[in-house]
Amino acid sequence: MRQPLPNKVWNGQVIYLRILSLCICLFLGNTAQVLAFQNESAKLITGQIIDDQGLNVPGVNILVKGSTTATVSDIDGKYRISASSSDTLVFSFIGYTTQEVAVGSQSILDITLSEDLKQLDEVIVVGYGTQKKSHMTGAVSKLQNENFGDIPILQADQLLQGKIAGVQIQNTTSEAGVSPSIRIRGNASIGASNEPLVVVDGYPTSDGLSFINPNDIESIEVLKDAASAAIYGSRGANGVIIVTTKSGVVDKPAFNFQMYAGVKNPYKVHDMLTSTEYVEMLWEEEALGAPGPTAHEQAAWSLGDNADWQQEGLQQGMISSYQLGVSGGKKDITYLISGGYNDEKGMLVNNDFQRFNLRMKMDAKLNNVVKVGVNINPSFTKNVLPASNFTDYFRTPSFMPVRHTEETSAITGIPVGDWAHGRHFNNLTYNYTLPDGTAVSEVARPWNTSNNNPLFISDNDERTKKLYRLMGSTYIQINLGKNLFFKASQGAYITSTTQEEYRNEGTNRAGDANRGLYENRLRIDLLSENILNYSKTLGDHQFSALAGFTAQKVTNDYSSIVGTNFPTDYIPTLNGATVISLEDTYTLKDESLLLSYLGRVTYSYKNKYLFSASARADGSSVFGPENRWGWFPSVSAGWVLTEEDFLNNSSFLDMLKLRGSYGVTGNNDIENYASVNRLYPNNYSFGAGTGSLTAGLAQSGATLANKAITWERTFSYNFGVDLAFLSNRFSLTAEVYKSVTDQLLLKQPTLAFTGYSEFWNNIGKIQNNGFELELRLNNITQKNFTWQTSINFATVKNELIQFSGEDRLLSYGERNEVYLAQVGQPYIQFYGYKTIGVWNTQEEIDANASNSLDRPGGLRLMDVNEDGVIDDEDRTVLGNPFPDFTWGITNNFNIGNFDLSFLIQGVQGVDVFNGDGHYNESKRMNKAYVENRWLSPEHPGDGMTPYSTNGIGWQFTDYMIEDGSYVSVRDIILGYTLPKSLTDKIKLTSLRVYGSAQNALYFTSKNYRGINPEARSTSGAYESPLVSGYQRGAFPVPRAFVFGVNVAF
User: Fold this and answer.
1) Residue ranges of domains in the chain
2) Helix-, strand-, coil-residue percentages of the chain, each rounded to 5
3) What CATH code is assigned to 43-116?
4) Mind listing the pLDDT tens digit for each residue in 351-408?
5) CA dihedral 275, 279, 284, 289 (to 10 degrees)
6) Which of the four, 740, 946, 949, 970, has the lowest number of CB atoms within 10 Å?
7) Alpha helix (H) residue ranges in 288-398
8) Which stretch of DSSP H or E encloses residue 13?
9) Which residues form the TonB-dependent receptor plug domain (predicted)?
């Protein structure tokens, strides 16, 4: 049993379970009332909806007029809804004329919808409300749940990949359970967060999309410009992603079961030399005039080839998902309950991810005045984190076995079957034979390595992260009459994160003692929103207004305890530790508050002249009293030319709309208390031994106060055109935008005499501009064959236009990489030396500008300033980690009961620093490198590949700056839906089976020598937005094959 910990460590789980239990009881009680509620006068109405050509029309909205009772038609155009004889049903769908049909005595109503070529009334969810797409004046893209449940993914972020122009999803690692990064229109900050705000059913959160079950999503809207995002004020600078989850519909209970399972394998791994190949390469080099193998290298050769460490560290990954949901309702009450389990076994050994999720949602119209609802979403995730990264495997020499063999045991004295470590093979006597037959006995240190065994570390270093989440909200909406509605929402988002680690003795190179860690973080986010909505139509004039007040409070509690010197590894809990490390034990707490006032007005005249304006005032506790409030206005306008007389009767154009917008958004996503001096308490021990209970407490400066610090503000301009033609067969949206972020937030170093190391400051200005294009094509629409294509394309270019009175800033990674932020250039650029091939002879070095580290076969640096000396003044820009453009193409085919879709996605013109290649070539272990390397003046190779990247190669040069462009056949899905005649016989509503392939094909640039151009280092020094584009320990691209089934009944 674990040692009892302070009560506050467990508070998160206690609060979580109490609130979850209360919410479930309330929900089940209300659901029981819903199911018990019967309207005896209602009857079941069924039917099928087709168009003028006899094609089934799925997704038609069917509404009982004057109520909230509604449903939608299924894939076959069929529907079911409860209504009384006196009711009227309203049938509506984008592009078709709305029809109203009285129920009367009928129980079967088959409807034929006629096309309305001028209609474009898709509903778009925007901040705190909805708008017709035809009235939108901002840059908003929407993904509708037409087949979200048919896409076998664990992370909802992947739904956006390659689908929306200007939205880049980057899979920085392929480890199980790790979410990709999301960027909307590039990076707008150099010191604060660049992640977009995510709003789930009206609840704003900074946790991204990873916790949302993709099967629960009804639609995703992406707000890209300030006119649409300014209503979220201080958190809208990086764009806003609005997620609307599914709701129940008035009908008898409908069940849906979805499952899939599949396997994952690496698309590509490094092509490395074995020990034998390595030493044979050295003998070949000696024959050509290069130095022969050293004693250490020959010693390694004598051990033979014992392991392919990349394969030892990889396993066949597996993914599976099981989801079950039920929805329904009676009259004015609807409900939905869904639950699921996801499991991902990573491709790296000892890396797993599991997620359990539940969603309960209910809406009830109590009378003609009051409507209420509740939405509860608890979830639990467990992530087994890898103790070794992929670098640890491919850099381990193949002469070292996983466990000692008879041969290695005879040399090292370590028993057969014990874990092998690099240190076991050092400073021993090795016997080997030279090519001329001479027997040699020599003390050696093979490859000068003390590497630990990465499989031993993975097996003996346990790291588990558990996350309990509860997002819950309730609302009451009151009809105040005359088109005026008031909605009050209250919500809570509680997360409790625990991380447990236990390292057995010897799991690092030094062989340190065992160590245990327990960390806990409790986060309580409370939200209150109060919104008034008003709308009015007077003849040709349509007007709406919104006003509201919101308050959000976030409290964080952190606790950490570390224990060491466990007598046995069989009791890894903290009660087994003989020492509690005071230096590593702490508790912390912080709070933040955001108060907001907001408003918006929209106006339309004859559906052709459109206007919208919004404003939000945010007060944030992150900043000092004098700069606490920020003001974020926006204005936009549109002109629908196809409503004008000169285009109204056009047989070609169905929609032509021009629009423009201007707005201001903000960013306050930095640590709390930046405006006050902060001291950090440091525990220390003195007396006998480390971790002694004789303790002291010292205060050190954490962050120096800056009372003048204020909001980052982004000023955005957007101009767009929406176009549809040929009976809405083709539609196009194009955007041109420019955004300028002022008062950039950045943590900067202070002078040493202050006692503090850093402080937050507003230091400059950055600009982004770009172009976006989205094209949707209904290529073929026949009764048994349809083909639709979606194409998106986006460019973004950033520029640092001001930086705190200076013209540049240099930032450094962990391995001598240099990053330049210079006014007039992209705000991150690789900065170092250009190379012009390799030196061939010493005479060539002596006759030209050179460096003391230069040698034949080494990289030749360019004398950029032509002063005859190679020094720091010759460093220059080598590239930048931002793509020139991104794109995606999606094709959807329906042929009878078969469906086929595939997504091709690409990123072009992006530079990366391939740290893995740099390491492999410095150790001369990469096969491709061996083929091209310099060997001697007579054998110069390709003239560009050095003998080794050691020496001058450790300077930051363009030799390892590579083109990270790629094209991926990201998803291929082939499905078959059983005919209705068969599913009726087996009492099912529908049944679909499918197979899919992810990353079936993956193409990279010829210039790229790595295995995954999307991978990025994001921890340590690389967490900063100023240090980017570095690859180290890149994990292979996963290729997955999945089979699934969806059943409705």
Assistant:
1) 43-116, 276-311+401-450
2) 15, 50, 35
3) 2.60.40.1120
4) 999 999 999 999 999 998 999 999 999 999 999 998 888 888 888 888 888 899 888 8
5) 140
6) 740
7) 295-303, 309-313, 390-394
8) helix 7-36
9) 133-240
